[in-house]
Amino acid sequence: MTDPDAPHHAHIYYNPAERAAAAMLREAFDSDPAILFVGAMTDGPAGPHPIAQYEVHFLGAAVPAVVAAIEAAGLRALVHPLTDDDLADHTTLAHWIGESVALDVSVLDPPGVNQGIPRFGVSDF
Q1: So what's the pLDDT on residue 21?
Q2: 56 neighbors 117 (Cβ within 8 angstroms)
Q3: Which of 14, 29, 69, 83 is the 20 to 30 A CA-CA neighbour of 36?
């Protein structure tokens, strides 16, 4: 069972044809009080993510609703906790919605040094 207070986030992926649907979902997340942070749409590679994406931050209690919203939008996503192991967060602890994306895990923080939220300039957890 997911700790309801544990920090999580999702990376919502999109291609040019899906950009409008991704933007609509982003707007819905932006007005949802359960969502703590909604990142900018990044139309190219960023960090370990090789394709366009944006992220949303939320607590464990919101995981089912976030997953349901992504599935309803028909988009693919990587949903994961934020622990002290960035690699595990993006691999063994992650849940894919739709087709997975081959991540560049070489850019992730080493275990025990997960910078998590601070790397985005936000401390919302």
Answers
A1: 97
A2: no
A3: 14
Give the per-residue SS3 of 64-82: HHHHHHHHHHCCEEEEEEC
Model confidence, pTM: 0.86
Strand-by-strand arrangement of the 7-13 sheet: 35-38, 53-59, 7-13, 76-81, 95-97
Among 88, 69, 47, 66, CA closest to 79: 66
Classify strands 35-38 and 76-81 as parallel, antiparallel or unpaired: unpaired
Task: Return the DSSP state at 94.
Answer: -
CB atoms within 10 A of CB 9: 23
The pLDDT of residue 3 is 86
Q: Which tens digits make up the pLDDT trace of 84-95? A: 888 889 999 999
E runs forming strands in 14-90: 35-38, 53-59, 76-81
Q: Which residue's structure tokens are 């995981």?
A: 63
* Percentage above 90 pLDDT, the chain: 69
**CATH code of domain 9-117:** 3.30.70.1240
